[in-house]
Amino acid sequence: MQDSFEKYLPWFILKEIPFLGNAIYKRLMDHFQSPEIVLASSEAELGSVGKIPEKVIHGIIHHKLFIDKAKIELEQIFKNNINIVTIVDSFYPDLLKQIPDPPPLLTYYGSLDNESPCVSIIGSRSATSYGLSTAENLSYKLSIKGFQVVSGLARGIDAMAHRGALKANGKTIAVLGSGLKKIYPKENKDLFHAIAKTGTVFSEFKVDADPVPHHFPIRNRIIAGLSCGSIVVEAAKRSGSLITARLASDYNREVFAVPGSIKSKKSEGTHSLLRQGAKLVETEIDIIDELYHFIHVHEKKMTVPILSDTQESSHNSCLSKDRPIILDFIEPYPVHIDIIIEKSGMNSSDVASQLLDLELEGLVIRHQGNCYSISEDYH
Predict the structure, then answer these.
(1) H/E element, 327
(2) Based on the number of CB atoms within 10 Å of its own CB, is 147 exposed (0-12), middle (13-18) or buried (19 or more)?
(3) What are phi and psi of 336, to 5 degrees?
């Protein structure tokens, strides 16, 4: 443990130096190759790097002033069994290294997978039922294809993206806008731990850092940087998800947007992205077609029950004559049961009975307010 403590201490000392941001940290590492050499360098040597402010050079020369603060943070990390990955480690995410200001180090729970490609799914915290089901469905299907799904553990779209990947027994990465000991939002505590069991929870902030507003745009660059493509499911005109999409574009990564209702303010941001040239997403195939070169040859195997001929015949016969009729009156957007009754001309008890059967078979999805939509697997 002592060896590890001494190994990481120079990294944390540099992080404590005022005005030494990630871009400058990267410039110093590119030049000197290690934080130990940076800290041992003279004023003249530091000045030769170029574009290093005088106040940063002054801080590095007097770095002993920051040793105690760095030790306190590192002790917290070791005390809480938190892992560290630095930018010189072979298992640091490859795509993240390529952005202009990658974090010099990340703390994390879980395990790292540098083999499987990453795709981010992001969107509104107060998403519609359409947005939530779409995020979960896309995440599930992309996980099956071998992608790691990246998101921010926020309410709404982020949480459903993580859950979709977990449902597929896939890997998902959560990037926090707080420290690893300040789970936010608190209701996603169980989700946090579920992700850490099979995937990764990252943070570049101090262990006890609060989820203050300015942390989230900083966090978003990591989400975009990890991913070969970013998918915005729902976003209002002014949304943090649009920041992530802009960053993804700046990093020459693919940007995707899911169209929504023209009446929904939650879709104004995604429609704006589409007008700017984002790739339109109707199914996961639209994403895979653009990112096919990232997909591994061997897709992840699913455990799917195989129906016998008799079972399959029985399953198909379940779609009785009335069922295709009632399905004609159910749309991808939630429709109230009263409208289905009115359009179908059937009595309310028959409609309710058939909707229950269809829900159990996974052909329709029930939403709050007694509304129903067609399942993407059927539509």
Answers:
(1) helix 322-327
(2) buried
(3) -70, 145
pLDDT in tens, 64-97: 999 999 999 999 999 999 999 999 999 999 999 9
**28-71 residue pLDDT tens:** 999 999 999 999 999 999 999 988 999 999 999 999 999 999 99
Residue with tokens 């002033």: 65
Structure-token pair, residue 272 = 């704006």
Query: In terms of residues, how long is the chain?
Result: 379
Q: Residue 301 gets which letter from DSSP?
A: P
Check which CATH number belongs to the domain holding 144 and give it: 3.40.50.450
Strand pairing category for 200-203 and 105-110: antiparallel
pTM for the structure as a whole: 0.78
Do 42 and 123 have their domain in common? no
Helical ranges in 48-128 per DSSP H: 54-61, 67-79, 94-97
Phi, psi of 256 (to 5 degrees): -120, 150
The SS3 of residue 250 is: helix
